[in-house]
């Protein structure tokens, strides 16, 4: 720092403590930024960059303090940390430099101004620590007070961790020093998490003691985390990070909730993405399961629904409870609609609680809380009158909160609590008097003047004002003899005397300072009310949970009626039976009534389906709809089907489609095999697996061999319920050979040398792929299609010749090399076949190496032209 004025010296000392943050340095009515902070803020916020000291060349940028929130929100949304440095002394009472301190550091995961947060999403800060055979995670939202933790064990830990991160979707992650390098590399190698803010932190030496002292408890048994070392460590580390940033400010965190993963269906990152559960490729919920289901009336309900969608429960009692509550709201249509109307008038109680604790609440928030209490009482009455105990609340305490706010705060308060005007008349005698003085001061002075004239008999007595003496009584010298003894002379003029009296000086103090005193007193009274409401914090948190649940349940009932869903039967016998099943997302993207329903039956006797059919025929839609129906059933939701029996499913795995991962250097085939390996190492006999076109990333024979081996391994070893979709119609042999496997196909109608995909799943295998017809539907030029058919005829003729001479098709595909007697005649025959024409052989070799799934129409055209030249 080159400018060594006392102010800049103070700035330098504070900035040195917050090198990783943009320092908002309070100067009067502005926050100023200097040096590199000023340059960065100027660029990111569009501020004018000036100089504080032109001679010393100190870059400067500033913003008004009263509008700082929007600027802070912009910086934090871009991943920056902002340190708020305030004046902690009154400048009027200090000589020299005013004392300044950083009162709070704001990071992406610790934003407290909810106005700039997405109301339907939590703003989580996540902590991660890796131990030998487990990973501890914690996540906190300081705007709601939610603080949860869980433990990842078994299988590929990092792969599971990526799935949890995607579920929680934190804005910021803190990682201990030992785990930092591993996790940071994994996160940075994934394009999904490229904008995530990651911070390295030190572990606390005595984490259990830290947590006990913070929550003022004797044991961690009450949180269910005693003796869980990695959980205790990461909870303490995460909490201390937040506490340090808040600089001693109170937090709305009152407990730690331990979430066991034993009762949660595992949905890894790939599955979440492939099934479009909560987010599409654009980062929103359009065209997702959440987007289809979320018609909640409150932001609290939307946040809870998102958690339920991401974490389907395996607790059969919880599933049945939700189903029963949904069923009630389906039957009681008028009750449901009346409650949903009232839910619209309930504000975000969770975040109002956070504001109360963080002391960022204002008068409008309290009025919103009051109105929420009124609507909750009305909802409760509706339910009680209709014989429902879904909502259990403490009526008396809710009334107490309502009355407290109703008594104190006006119905339409101003936004700021620093300038007064929000406390009701009649609540505080002193405030009423000050307001009366401020509004009717002149009238009161005339009253005093009249009273003094009557007391003294001096009709010419006047009350006047000047800056030197303030208010005073002026009496002409002709009336001096009538002046009472208690008048205190302040000034003598030629023709008059000026006096003061205690009553007038007392009133002078009130009238001159009334406005400031009103603002100060109202602020004090407001803080009193806030302090009283904070005594109800735990009750309000429980109440927000109950209202969120009520919103979700009534919403799911509304969706069930709107979309013609049915109540699934929940079983534990391994059966997955769906009749008239529909894809909940796809059916909304096409005209009503056009979606083709399908059925599925998987049980202990038949748990593996080999599904054949061409690309674009509906295989992926069929498989995904089954997975989504299973997820919805585990949410407790109704499902899109005519009938459904769903057994508890511990994990859902999907391997759908593939494309080269250019950022990590993984080819289609490598990525495909990595994901399949994770499935094979993690699935159990209670899992559901979707495999789509496995092996297509390599040559045809390699692909078929690998797909066959994977099929047999799952069938023989894992015994998970599986649907394997393929356009290799040769794989249908497995459906006939494996005991618990079945062949199904997409029904295709052929007419006039053209095909139509009927989207209907029927038993039996497909005997050809219809690849050229798919190419026609995709719009490839006619010349390419004609030439493709010629080449296909050549290849099929070659295949038939080989089968006639050796009968080895199935051995080639599923076994080792064919066993033949190498007689001279047979060798000559085989050589004649293999070298029918060198041109044809060359074309066959080229075709074997082509991956048609990754060919563009232009590349296909060029390749066909190349093959044509060879044959000609």
Layout of SSEs?
Layout: H1 6-16, E1 22-27, E2 30-34, H2 35-45, E3 50-51, E4 59-64, H3 68-77, E5 82-87, E6 100-106, E7 125-130, E8 134-141, E9 146-153, H4 157-168, E10 172-176, H5 177-189, E11 197-201, H6 207-215, H7 229-246, E12 257-258, E13 266-267, H8 269-274, H9 289-293, H10 299-310, H11 316-331, H12 333-343, H13 349-358, H14 363-385, H15 395-408, H16 429-456, E14 462-466, E15 470-476, E16 488-492, E17 496-500, H17 502-534, H18 537-562, E18 569-571, E19 576-581, E20 598-602, E21 608-612, H19 619-635, E22 643-647, E23 651-656, H20 668-682, E24 688-692, H21 700-718, E25 721-726, H22 732-737, E26 741-751, E27 754-763, H23 771-778, H24 782-806, H25 809-814, H26 824-834, H27 838-848, H28 857-871
Parallel strand pairs: 1-5, 7-10, 9-12, 10-11, 13-23, 18-22, 21-25, 21-26, 23-24, 24-25
Antiparallel strand pairs: 1-2, 2-4, 3-4, 5-6, 7-8, 8-9, 14-15, 15-17, 16-17, 19-20, 19-22, 26-27
Helix pairs in contact: 6-7, 10-18, 11-18, 12-14, 12-18, 14-15, 16-17, 23-24
Structure description:
There is one protein chain. The chain is 46% helix and 17% strand. The chain is of the alpha/beta class. The protein folds into six domains: 6-106, DNA repair protein MutS, domain I (MutS, DNA mismatch repair protein, domain I), CATH 3.40.1170.10; 119-263, Nucleotidyltransferase, domain 5 (2-Layer Sandwich); 292-423 and 532-562, MutS, DNA mismatch repair protein, Chain A, domain 3; 429-527, MutS, DNA mismatch repair protein, Chain A, domain 3 (Orthogonal Bundle); 569-777, Rossmann fold (3-Layer(aba) Sandwich), CATH 3.40.50; 783-871, no CATH class. Strand 23, helix 20 (668-682) and strand 24 form a beta-alpha-beta unit. Helix 6 crosses helix 7. The radius of gyration is 38 Å and the shape is elongated.
